[in-house]
Amino acid sequence: MTWIRTIPMEEADDKLRSALEAARAGYPREYASPVSPGGDSVVASHTLIPDAMYHIFAGFAAMMSPDLPLSRAQHEMIATMVSVQNRCFY
Q1: pLDDT for residue 85
Q2: What are 38-75's pLDDT values in tens digits?
Q3: Domain that holds residue 67
Q4: Number of structural domains, the chain?
Q5: Hey, is 75 helix, strand or coil?
Q6: What letter does residue 9 receive in the DSSP assignment?
Q7: How far is Cα 54 from Cα 25, in angstroms, rounded to an integer?
Q8: Cβ count near 57 (within 10 Å)
Q9: Could you tell me which residues come within 8 angstroms of residue 23 by beta carbon, excluding any fewer than 6 positions away?
Q10: Would the pTM count as exceeding 0.90?
Q11: Using CA atoms, how far apart are residues 18 and 80, in angstroms rounded to an integer?
């Protein structure tokens, strides 16, 4: 398993804290309850570059908008099939 240095919220400066809060604000509502004790590992892996984190997750939020014609289930199905084709864990 690869180890990536991350910055926890309690050590975040104002810029990183703002990026983390913006990322969380854009999560689909289904992400409101954590499902693993590990926390936001994908988001946390971006904490060293707050500007990149903001833009990546703002794009994700726009693509997952409930105002778009695809349902959350359809988004999940597409992500699952892409992972299968790429032979990676989703």
Answers
A1: 94
A2: 555 678 888 999 999 999 989 988 888 888 899 888 98
A3: 9-85
A4: 1
A5: helix
A6: G
A7: 11
A8: 21
A9: 43, 53, 54, 57
A10: no
A11: 30
